[in-house]
Design a protein that fits this description.
The structure holds 3 protein chains of 3 kinds. Chain A is mostly helical. In chain A, 72% of the residues lie in helices and 0% in strands. In chain B, helix 7 packs across helix 10 and helix 8 crosses helix 10. Classes of the chains: A mainly alpha, B mainly alpha, C alpha/beta.
């Protein structure tokens, strides 16, 4: 049986097939990813091409209202940019930053956790102190600091650098939970006899870690990572909203919301609400998926 | 027990020292410290004089020591953005943030715990399901978006609550309180709800999960086997055992509330420390950033210690045991 | 009927008559006294993805007032499930799917939640395996005792407390008046199990279901606790259903024993008969497997194969694939409990028409 077939027939696959929530959430999440990745082809307009913008189109409400136009389904902002297209491009940045920071967090966290668990001694103690210190601060504060300092050090940074700093700041707040989980599992495995036997026969520590410990740990790491994607996306949006995240020239959904916030009181709610809705949809579907995954992989609930 | 407290204190000192170090590095690497202290309008002579006075031409360690001494006394210099003393700026804004955090914390507890208990006892119920869905929303909605939505609905469309500022305040001692006036309460409602929602969902989920765990234990099984009433089992035994770990985690979250206030204060233009911090970050106002950092760490450390002590008071297993076997 | 060889040959006939008479007396005695607990054709099922699993398949037995019935068998044979079903604490999705449980003539398997709650603790008590996790660590044992007493018996706080102290003294806790206010973690394992026994007896139940009460204890303490359990129950006239996998405990403590296999009862009868003259091939295998230091042996006796898993129980007699004496009928038909001398065994070897 091929790998995919085995997964489909497994307990996890079964609970996926019978859970409309899981399937629905995955579908929605995949759709969002699709729109984000292929925004360039799918979006009706390009909101960043200054040549196509016309101030006459500015501040149009959504197409289904009286003053709306079918050309701009979700309305336009103060510069005449199509909200729907801006949504897709914004989602792209949000998702890219979210995924990138989670992947980096996982790599760093798992690596540290394996090292600490396997080597023990002062390496482990130092790492645990570090984790404790980092955990005693709320993530948002750490991220804000790093982003803020980045701002101060590179005041006129090009977009990519700004995004890079953003990714780094979110990564640095997320790796700790992986390190702890992996460390715990590594210590459990390390004391098992087959590992000691392997060491006696000369198998290197690296190989043991890779072949034996890693597979056992990936389950909880996967659950954590899925839930953390949603957290990362929300953190990024928050940072952008506060002004230290994605710049207006490469706006993420959070930046869009910030820009639109100014128009809330003049009644042009769509400029901020639609990016907000998109954010909610993405976060919700990823969270649902993560929740379902955690319940499906939890042996005690079966 | 004393050994435990001692260890915790040492850990606290370690954390504070690390934070102070980071704050100090901020000063070093992001601009000229003397300018921070004197403000932008200082003459070159003043700068040089202060530089010698402060020993900035001295070694790194000496400078760090000076910094530590000053910060311990609350002296962080002068704000680059506003020109006033950082310490008085912060002192002025502190009550606003603390009151907001307090109201939000109470709200989160008073609503979150009963919701969690209900969701655990009546699993599968329609109301429980809706609680769980609500909690999912609470975790998926960023705080600032909640604030914006609340403003849209309750301020712009319905006009029931103000969306801006603190309202009338009354000075009690040095503390400007908004909780003593009706207008103050009117203003605090929307921001407090915004701040509380994330906490609320966390508390609710935690209480539910803990309670479900506890309900599966052997001592609950034995209590059932003894024929104790549902009320005695659920509220006498299970709830007490649930609340002990929940209480500690909630206490630790309290510090998070104060930090999260940054977002809420920005959305509602609430004149607290958080708003000050954001303005400082956007302006690269290092003294204020450093001061905020140190203050927040202090608050965290104090909260952590208090929670640890509370644990001792509640769990008899941690106290020095009396008679032996 | 077997004639027993009496060492004093001259009195053999008299002894035989006496034996028959007393046997008949016991038989009629058992028939005339209403059993405290009667379990009839009890079926417990678990609905799973692969269909309904029968964990208990038509279990029937009685417990007389004041009697100690041992329930023995391998892990997974259904012993604990039987106990759980009796006190109405089957973990969902398990459910009683057939049969009856009667306590003092009244059906209890179909009672609602509140009615069953009144029975638990007051008429049937239960003891579980691990004394450490059986007690709420945050409450003193005095509070837990008083709470249980006052739930079932109308008493003031003071009266309940002195009764609690009495119970602790009965179960051998020294300095009961001081220790009543201690917390569970301040007691050793054996002491804790004594507290558990006191809690189970607090409301004077007539039957105690003890599920592996000594398995989690040090070997040196096991004997003490078992002796204590037997004594306090005897003093109060309470019957005991002692669930265990330890044959030594059964031999020491029980009046009768039921041997369970794959969710069914293989044999049930007076303890010394089952041990010395097992009528079911499985019981025989179990007894033979017990090492005896007086006999010289090379290998321990083993029963080939393993107990079948719940979804793969053979047709007919569940033991037939492993049985050395299995016949064609054993594969076809499932045997009921048939009389085999003083015991009853679910085995076709004892069918009325079988050649002896």
């Amino acid at each position: 049986m091929s790998r995919l077939q085995r997964i489909w027939n497994s307990d996890v696959g079964y609970s996926f097939r019978t859970s409309p929530v899981a399937m629905g959430a995955t579908l929605v999440a995949l759709l969002c990813v699709f729109f984000a990745v292929f925004a360039g082809w799918v979006a009706p307009h390009n909101p960043f091409d200054l040549a196509t913008l016309d101030l006459a189109d500015a501040r149009l409400p959504p197409a289904w209202t009286a003053e709306g136009s079918a050309k701009f389904v979700l309305g336009t902002d103060d510069q005449g940019r199509d909200i729907l297209s801006a949504l897709m491009y914004g989602a792209r940045i949000s998702l890219a930053v979210g995924f990138a920071s989670v992947i980096l967090s996982v790599i760093i966290g798992v690596a540290f956790g394996l090292l600490a668990g396997f080597l023990g001694g002062w390496v482990d103690a130092a790492l645990m102190r570090l984790c404790d210190v980092m955990l005693s601060f709320p993530a948002i504060l750490v991220a804000l600091l790093i982003a803020g300092v980045g701002r101060a050090v590179f005041p006129n940074a090009p977009d990519n650098l700004a995004l890079g700093v953003l990714i780094v700041s979110i990564t640095l707040t997320g790796w700790v939970q992986y390190a702890r989980t992996v460390r715990g599992s590594t210590m459990v495995e390390r004391s098992k006899e087959y590992v000691q036997a392997a060491r006696v026969t000369g198998v290197t520590s690296l190989r043991i870690m890779r072949r034996h410990v890693l597979p056992n740990v990936m389950g909880p790491v996967l659950v954590l990572a899925t839930i953390q994607v949603a957290t990362a996306i929300i953190t990024e949006a928050t940072l952008s909203f506060l002004g230290v995240g994605a710049p207006p020239t490469s706006p993420s959904l959070g930046t869009l919301i910030r820009i639109g916030n100014d128009y809330l009181f003049s009644g042009e709610w769509w400029i901020t609400i639609f990016p907000g809705l998109m954010l909610i949809i993405i976060a919700l579907s990823v969270n649902l998926l993560g929740d379902w995954l955690r319940d499906a992989l939890n042996p005690r609930l079966r | 027990m004393f050994a435990f407290i001692l260890r915790r204190l040492l850990q606290a000192v370690f954390v504070m020292a690390t934070v102070a170090f980071i704050a100090f590095m901020l000063f070093q690497f992001v601009g000229d410290p003397v300018l921070f202290m004197l403000g932008q309008d200082a003459t070159p002579e003043q700068v040089q004089e202060l530089r010698e006075l402060l020993g900035l031409d001295r070694s790194f360690l000496v400078q760090f020591w000076h910094f530590l001494l000053n910060s311990a006394q609350g002296d962080f210099g002068i704000s680059l953005r506003q020109g006033g003393k950082v310490s008085s700026l912060i002192a002025e804004r502190l009550p606003a943030t603390l009151e907001l955090a307090l109201v939000a914390a109470l709200l989160a507890l008073v609503v979150g715990v009963p919701m969690g208990v209900y969701a655990a006892l009546r699993r599968g119920n329609a109301l429980s399901q809706s609680f769980m869905m609500f909690s999912l929303l609470g975790v998926s909605l960023p705080t600032f978006l909640i604030g914006i939505l609340l403003i849209l609905v309750f301020s712009v469309w319905l006009g029931w609550f103000p969306s801006f500022g603190r309202g009338d305040t009354v000075s009690v001692g040095g503390w400007k309180s908004g909780l003593l006036t009706l207008d103050g309460w009117h203003h605090v409602v929307l921001p407090a709800i915004t701040l509380a929602i994330f906490q609320l969902t966390l508390i609710m989920r935690l209480v539910r999960a803990e309670m479900l765990e506890v309900l599966r234990t052997d001592y609950i099984k034995f209590a059932r086997a003894r024929g104790l009433s549902d009320r005695a089992i659920h509220f006498g035994h299970a709830l007490k055992n649930t609340l002990v770990p929940v209480m500690t985690i909630t206490g630790l979250q309290l510090g998070g509330l104060i930090a999260f206030a940054i977002i809420t204060e920005t959305v509602f233009q609430w004149p607290g420390m958080g708003l000050l911090f954001i303005q400082a970050v956007n302006f690269a106002d290092i003294p204020v950033m450093a001061a905020y950092l140190c203050l927040i760490s202090l608050i965290f450390v104090v909260i952590n210690l208090t929670v640890d002590l509370l644990y001792f008071a509640v769990d008899p297993r941690l106290r020095v045991s009396g008679k032996g076997h | 009927m077997n004639t027993t060889q009496h060492p004093d040959g001259s009195n053999a006939r008299a002894a035989e008559v006496a034996g028959t008479q007393s046997a008949r007396q016991t038989h009629t005695m058992q028939q005339s006294v209403e059993p405290l607990l009667r379990v009839k054709d009890l079926v417990v099922e678990f609905p799973t993805r692969a269909g309904k699993l029968r964990a208990l398949d038509k279990i029937s037995f009685d417990i007389a007032p004041g009697e100690v019935l041992g329930v023995v068998g391998e892990s997974g044979a259904g012993k604990s499930l039987t106990g759980a079903a009796i006190i109405g604490l089957l973990e969902p999705p398990g459910r009683i799917a057939g049969g009856e449980i009667m306590l003092e003539g009244q059906r209890i398997d179909n009672l609602d939640h509140e009615a069953m709650r009144h029975i638990r603790g007051r008429r049937i008590g239960a003891i579980f395996q691990d004394p450490l996790t059986s007690l709420n660590p945050l409450y003193s044992i005095g509070r837990q005792l008083v709470e249980t007493i006052r739930t079932h018996l109308p008493m003031s706080e003071k009266a309940a407390r002195s009764r609690a102290i009495e119970l602790l003294q009965d179960t051998g806790i020294p300095a009961a008046e001081q220790r009543i206010d201690h917390y569970p973690h301040q007691f050793s394992g054996g002491m804790r199990q004594r507290v558990v026994i006191a809690l189970a007896l607090a409301a004077e139940p007539k039957l105690i279901v003890a599920d592996e009460p000594t398995t989690a204890l040090d070997v040196s303490i096991q004997a003490q606790i078992i002796a204590l359990l037997k004594k306090v129950c005897k003093d109060r006239g309470a019957a005991v259903m002692l669930i265990t996998h330890d044959m030594g405990v059964i031999a020491e403590t029980c009046d009768r024993v039921a041997v369970m296999y794959a969710g069914r009862i293989a044999e049930i009868g007076p303890v010394h008969e089952v041990i010395n003259h097992p009528a079911h091939p499985y019981s025989a295998g179990l007894m033979a497997a017990i090492p005896d230091i007086t006999i010289d042996r090379e290998n321990l006796h083993q029963i080939d194969g393993a107990m079948p898993r719940l979804h793969a129980i053979p047709t007919g007699c569940a033991f037939n694939p492993r049985c050395e004496r299995s016949m064609e009928r054993c594969v076809r038909e499932r045997p009921e409990l048939l009389a085999a001398g003083p015991t009853r065994a679910a085995c076709w070897l004892h069918a009325a028409d079988a050649a002896t």
